[in-house]
Amino acid sequence: MGFPDGLRRLDWAALGMTLALGGLGGGVALLLHLPLALLLGSLVVTGVIAAAGWRPFGRAVLLPMKLRSAFVPVIGVAIGGAFSPEVLGQAGAWGPSLLALLVFLPVLHGVGYVIYTRGGLPKLESFFGAVPGGLIESVQMGEEAGGDVRLMTVLQFLRLILTIVSVPLIFMVLTGGAVGSASGAALPAAAVPLTVQEVAVLLAAGALGVAVGRALRFPAAIMTGPVLFSAVAHAAGLVHGVPPAWLVGVTQVVVGCGLGVRFAGAERAMLWRAGRLAVVNAVVALALAYGFAVMLAPWVGEPPAAVFLAFAPGGLAEMSLIALSLQMSVVYVTVHHVARIVLSVLIAKGARRWTG
């Protein structure tokens, strides 16, 4: 039996080199005690190589999206282990911050649009590039409207990258310790040794979660599906542990490399121009998120840091990894980021029809 065509055509040497370089970057970041070291170290190394167009050992860095998608459910399964009757009992108090997203997201979208248009970018690309969630959906809507896919992708991608890089640094300054400076996420359940049966249950939760999530069109299905199935498995007592820390660490490297290689082929002039505006937008977005966090924390029974993490417009998988590393209101943060993605796309669709 031979390999499928997709695997046969894959440059395995380039993939191995990419993961090795990403792992090396993550290892150096660990030694330097940088926040979320494995993810950020691999991202920076592969991102710089991709953006510069370098070809180490005669090969370009690459990481297929399917490989990243295969590892992301690990994060979802780990988050599912944080669900407990005590956590679910607190969910009733989250209403104010979930409702606040209906104000926060349109404001954030509007501010980003103004920053990009005042910076000289076209209105259409600025509108869809400023959507604070749902990168794929936003770019797809913009493409259907006739926008420049490359520019919208760069704006959306820089939103993710700048938030993912900034949030761990902010927490490191505030707490004095590196976020995820060990091998990655840490949960009390991580110390529970898994039996063969429990490993099978977790694998099933990840696979079935992705399949059912996609069939039912869950937002960010490769994350939310495994979260749901893992939560049910833990609540039912079928499993008590979560994926080991080393596997979450490998996932960080794969996710970081997957983000970094997407800088390949980006025009440097476009990257520089959009990057300057994206930095301004990211600073404003994080300042707004902090302001909302301070106001909402007393109303939702969560620390301001958890509310800030829930409102920071980064990627669902990456923000959840930070919450896991901090052992900070993991379910609260994940629920809000799922809501952010759904509401951002719905608001963008409605606003686009209203503005024509």
Key words describing this protein structure:
about 0% strand, disordered N terminus, about 75% helix, single chain, about 350 residues, mainly alpha
> Would you report the number of β strands?
0
User: Average pLDDT, to the nearest integer?
Assistant: 85
Structural class call reads mainly alpha
Helix % is over 70%
Please state the CA-atom Rg, rounded to the nearest Å. 20 Å
What would your notes on this structure say?
- This is AbrB family transcriptional regulator.
- Keywords: Membrane, Transmembrane, Transmembrane helix.
- Pfam families: AbrB.
- It comes from Paragemmobacter kunshanensis.
- The chain crosses the membrane at residues 12-32, 38-57, 69-88, 94-116, 160-179, 185-211, 218-239, 245-265, 277-301, 321-343.
- The protein is mostly helical.
- It has one domain.
- It contains 16 helices and no strands.
- It has helices at residues 5-9, 12-31, 37-52, 65-80, 85-90, 95-118, 123-129, 135-144, 149-175, 196-215, 221-235, 245-260, 268-300, 304-311, 316-326, 330-355.
- Helix 3 (37-52) packs parallel to helix 12 and helix 15 packs antiparallel against helix 16.
- The chain starts with a helix and ends with a helix.
Record the SSE blueprint:
Layout: H1 5-9, H2 12-31, H3 37-52, H4 65-80, H5 85-90, H6 95-118, H7 123-129, H8 135-144, H9 149-175, H10 196-215, H11 221-235, H12 245-260, H13 268-300, H14 304-311, H15 316-326, H16 330-355
Helix pairs in contact: 2-3, 2-12, 3-12, 4-10, 4-11, 4-12, 4-15, 6-7, 6-13, 6-16, 7-8, 7-9, 8-9, 9-13, 10-11, 13-14, 14-16, 15-16
